[in-house]
Design brief:
This protein is an alpha/beta fold. It contains twelve helices and twelve strands. Helix content is 32%, strand content 14%. The strands form three sheets. The protein has a seven-stranded mixed β-sheet with strand order 3-2-1-4-5-7-6, sandwiched between helices. A hairpin with a 5-residue loop joins strand 11 and strand 12. The longest helix has 31 residues. About 4% of the residues have low confidence.
Length: 405
Amino acid sequence: MRSLELFGGAGGLAIATARAGFEHEAVIEWDRNACDTLRLNAQSGFGHADNWKIIEGDIIAHDFAQYQGRVEFVSGGPPCQPFSLGGNHLGQDDHRNMFPQAVRAIREIRPKAFIFENVRGLLRKTFANYYSYIILQLRFPDIKVRGDEEWTDHIARLEKFATSGKHAGLRYNVVYRLLNAADYGVPQHRWRVLIVGVRSDLAIEFSMPDKTHEEGALLHDQWVSGEYWERHRVARKDRPPMPRDARAKLTRLDGFWRETMLRPWRTVRDAIADLPKVASGRSCPKTANHYLNPGARSYAGHTGSALDEPAKALKAGDHGVPGGENTLRLPDGSVRYFSIRECARIQTFPDEWRFASSWTESMRQLGNAVPVLLGEAVAKPLRETIVKSDHVIQRLKLAASRHPR
């Protein structure tokens, strides 16, 4: 099923949707450094990217109509800075707000389905009305803004169409949910808003996937069975003390059989334990992007990620990594920066995927990326649902041709 990836970034969602079975007609991204990463992997023959057409440029000037009839699926993560908790909070007034372009892409391509993702800051009360506006535009993408019409007037028109039920044009059934990547096998607490739309004429039913991993199972493996420490060959004397709240959480699990639990949350140790050990300021020649930048420090509010829990959300900053956000807190209390490769593991990028830029720039790309496993968890069942629907439609058409009225 042919697809188009918008706002490609470092490739997290593009890899996820490719793994799910979508074939990218093109991947569009305006940032040169991110495009360098995409091109590096496409040119090196990475399995999912070797046939990608990488388009570097401003999406505002891109002609999406050329893909109509060829592309059946669109995905992407519009820049999150306008809605990020760490940004300037300008929302719809930020020139980087690209949701209007995402809507334009859907209007001009008319795909069977789409997936867009963004930060949970989009759900803040400050942006509640604008978020409703985004969803309504995606539901009725061909009801365009009139001239210099304000978005507040446009949303009023969209609401009338939504409540009247009389709109006969292009329409999508849209669902959305806030998901924690840790609940889907990502070794990181990373909350993302996932928005999925399916063209209404296809009569496809879709719901967001159930979580596959949970905290309770991790706590059981660590503090009841000890399987976690045995798997990592951590001697009893070297194990950290049980966290204060772990016992209370385990108590709430009484009455549940171990077999009924989901899989354990994955931890930082799970993600990086098998990577070669390197000294601060050194790199590993056998492992791409595995360099330990020196100078990490810990201070109030920036204490780093614990080794035996899912990592804190990786962050991207205008001038490199904000202090302490992308550091690892070791059992002895010391901290160090994660390497690029370790961050890639935490974001569930394949080890074959390489980053073309400096440590600071690569960390920025990773801090803005979608965890591959989270994207795949949503994209895979969506594609399976679409394919199943296509098969049903084909069978109905075949039956109608054999038994015309």
